[in-house]
């Protein structure tokens, strides 16, 4: 579940309330739609996005975290969860976080409707924050998700994909939401434009590092730790940093990609090839570069509490590989 008890007890209570509120916010009149939404949140998750929002809120307000901050944390998690539902449909994933995906448990039609419903609910709550700047920046994230999915579809099993293409796609699919929610939190705290922009840069690079680490784990992790089979991204044609770097060293991967990992043991063979190259190490180094860039952004903000509390998040992301 959450990582907060190990980081900052001050927001532990707020995250427990968030868990309860999420289920209330996605309540629907139709029992199937409600069951699908509830199934998602019952599966839990790291809640990394709400954690970051609450930490930034705590460090940028002189008194207590505002109700708007708490609602933004909830909205962000709903948007993230909605994107996962649609991702799972597109990728035909059978499990997520160790439980059946919505389309696997119910149907593809219900999953698509559940994702749409969650996006709609988040938009309604977002509008009720009554802050146009926040509405603008968070609304853009939903279009970024679609852009990311299109880009991923266009590069499916494309061995010519570059690291730059991969980073750009990763921004749309992961980093955009984290970056925008960081900035939106600073907007709600009425910080300076410069502070808001530095929080955006922090979130952007943190989000990219988070995605790269996720992609490394897809290669080196176990089904038990991932909640889904290792190599799931490769199987779906989503070529990530470890494979892109490994392609530079071992041409055998080209043959496996060309036949779309269709033969028995193709995924296992690809994983072993990647592990025997510098693909994992180079991906780790790339993640570290983005972690350092996020730290540089925070250091440009004159806020020691933000620097200290957010450094725990940075460390947590990299230590997921340990």
From TrEMBL:
Alphabetized Pfam families for the sequence: polyprenyl_synt (PF00348)
GO biological process: isoprenoid biosynthetic process; quinone biosynthetic process
Cofactor(s) the record lists: Mg(2+)
Molecular function in Gene Ontology: metal ion binding; prenyltransferase activity
Sorted UniProt keywords: Chloroplast, Isoprene biosynthesis, Magnesium, Metal-binding, Plastid, Transferase
Name of encoding gene: preA
InterPro entries to which the protein is assigned, alphabetical: Isoprenoid_synthase_dom_sf, Polyprenyl_synt, Polyprenyl_synt_CS
Protein family per UniProt: Belongs to the FPP/GGPP synthase family.
Highest taxon of the lineage: Eukaryota
TM helices/strands, residue ranges: none
Protein name per UniProt: Prenyl transferase
Lineage: Eukaryota, Rhodophyta, Florideophyceae, Rhodymeniophycidae, Gracilariales
PANTHER family named in the record: ALL TRANS-POLYPRENYL-DIPHOSPHATE SYNTHASE PDSS1, GERANYLGERANYL PYROPHOSPHATE SYNTHASE
